[in-house]
Design goal:
single chain, mainly alpha, 10 helices
């Protein structure tokens, strides 16, 4: 990774850490397209590693609001989905998966926007975890299903629970990728160089995260889901 690429990546990672530390999602959606353009050889391992310190910080900051029931069901689906994600990574071009997931995400966002507030069921949590496991392991992007299932919950619950789900899932995905020989030294070294940018963005989010609540937070999460879905579709078509 050249100095110019490292600088652009660091600014992107800091901004993405700020966004996710504020609303609970968004890191991968911002970082993956940039790294895919500038340093595609770092994906998805670099993104998975960088999200670990970010999610540790968010869980520590708002651990009192954790939804342990939702975390359990999502994690169960996430573990199963990880192995499907690895199979996809080995047999199917990630952009083909992105096309399918992106279209489904946009459709799901449109449907949920037209519905009144709902309390997620165990089946919804399990499904969200399964889809997240597949997409995050294969492409590095796993936030849209969690954004959809938690959109009506309070801000601290959203941020803490999604961070914990991501944290557990990232260790699972990294372990599976390592066992499959899909992890390299260059990916690890790139992640280490970008960790300071994660810290800067995460600490900056502490200044504003309590101000983004209610409908403002829901709108931000739905915007994230729709935009990420569109990006996946466009990437899948190109």
């Amino acid at each position: 990774m050249s100095m110019a690429v490292l600088l652009i990546a660091a600014v992107t990672v800091a901004a993405a850490s700020f966004v996710q530390g504020t609303i609970g999602v968004g890191f991968a959606m911002i970082v993956v397209p940039v790294l895919a353009l500038l340093a595609p050889e770092t994906l998805p391992v670099c993104v998975l590693i960088l999200m670990i310190p970010l999610n540790v910080y968010v869980v520590w900051r708002e651990h009192g609001a954790l939804d342990w029931r939702g975390t359990g069901w999502i994690t169960a689906g996430r573990i199963v989905g990880t192995f499907f994600g690895l199979a996809v990574l080995l047999t199917l071009a990630p952009h083909h998966l992105g096309l399918l997931v992106g279209a489904a995400t946009v459709l799901a966002a449109a449907v949920t926007l037209s519905r009144p507030a709902f309390a997620p069921s165990s089946r919804a949590f399990l499904t969200a975890g399964l889809v997240t496991g597949v997409t995050e392991t294969a492409t590095g992007i796993g936030g849209p299903p969690l954004a959809l299932v938690y959109q009506h919950q309070p801000g601290p619950v959203i941020r803490a629970t999604i961070a914990m789900c991501f944290l557990i899932g990232q260790f699972v995905s990294l372990g599976v990728l390592l066992a499959a020989g899909r992890m390299s030294f260059s990916q690890l070294s790139s992640a280490v160089l970008l960790v300071p940018a994660v810290i800067v963005g995460a600490l900056a989010s502490h200044l504003v995260h309590r101000r983004v609540e209610g409908e403002m937070l829901r709108f931000a999460m739905m915007a994230f889901a729709v935009v990420s879905g569109v990006i996946l579709v466009v990437h899948g078509l190109t």
